[in-house]
């Protein structure tokens, strides 16, 4: 969907062009799965990891003042500026997840793609993370979240696409919980209980 692979059939467009065209790489920030539990041995600091988000913008090998400002702003945005010089392997799962989110933000992306970003993250850090995503979305950044926790999806998403090799549902969370899309996609007798608050 974000251009890492070509579709087997049909087409996917990003920003009006085929998604696989590399010219959009600087407009997409990606937070991979399991960042809270992996990369513990990376011999780099948090600042160096976040600086990697600037690579799509580099024409020369040196980092500019604008790059440093983007990194510092991203670190402050996710509230880990005080950890900038710490080795990434010394962070807690929630802190490491925030560092990789800062890397995505440093890219100045228009779209953030997150693959189960809160796996291995404690409940308090998870809620703070989703609050940050809501804020970023309100600021005009598109958030694409790959998530298997239906509670998270129905609570935090404004639109849901339920996929399992094909599209079973696309629409709002309220409609999703009233359909059989989950059972159709994954088999069995899946059911959701949705509490309206």
TrEMBL record:
Keyword Hydrolase part of the UniProt annotation: no
Record keyword Transport present: yes
Classification via PROSITE patterns: ABC_TRANSPORTER_1
One annotated GO molecular function: ATP hydrolysis activity
Limits of the ABC transporter domain: 2-118
Superkingdom in the source lineage: Archaea
Alphabetized UniProt keyword annotations: Transport
Residue ranges of the region described as Disordered: 1-25
Family from the record: Belongs to the ABC transporter superfamily.
PANTHER family (UniProt xref): IRON TRANSPORT SYSTEM ATP-BINDING PROTEIN HI_0361-RELATED, METAL TRANSPORT SYSTEM ATP-BINDING PROTEIN TM_0124-RELATED
Protein name: ABC transporter domain-containing protein
UniProt organism field: Halobellus salinus
């Amino acid at each position: 969907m974000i251009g890492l692979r070509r579709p087997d059939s049909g087409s996917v467009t990003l920003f009006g062009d085929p998604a696989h065209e590399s010219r959009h790489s600087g407009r997409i920030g990606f937070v991979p799965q399991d960042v809270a539990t992996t990369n513990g041995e990376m011999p780099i600091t948090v600042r160096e990891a976040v600086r990697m988000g600037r690579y799509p913008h580099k024409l020369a090998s040196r980092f500019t003042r604008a790059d440093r400002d983007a990194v510092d702003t991203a670190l402050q945005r996710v509230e880990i500026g005080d950890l900038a010089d710490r080795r990434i392997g010394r962070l807690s799962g929630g802190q490491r997840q925030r560092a990789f989110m800062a890397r995505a933000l440093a890219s100045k992306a228009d779209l953030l793609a997150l693959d189960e970003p809160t796996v291995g993250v404690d409940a308090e850090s998870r809620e703070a993370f989703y609050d940050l995503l809501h804020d970023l979305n309100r600021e005009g950044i598109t958030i694409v979240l790959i998530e298997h926790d239906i509670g998270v999806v129905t609570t935090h998403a404004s639109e849901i696409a339920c996929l399992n090799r094909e599209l079973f549902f696309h629409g709002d969370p309220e409609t999703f919980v009233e359909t059989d899309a989950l059972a159709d996609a994954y088999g069995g007798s899946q059911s959701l209980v949705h509490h309206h608050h």
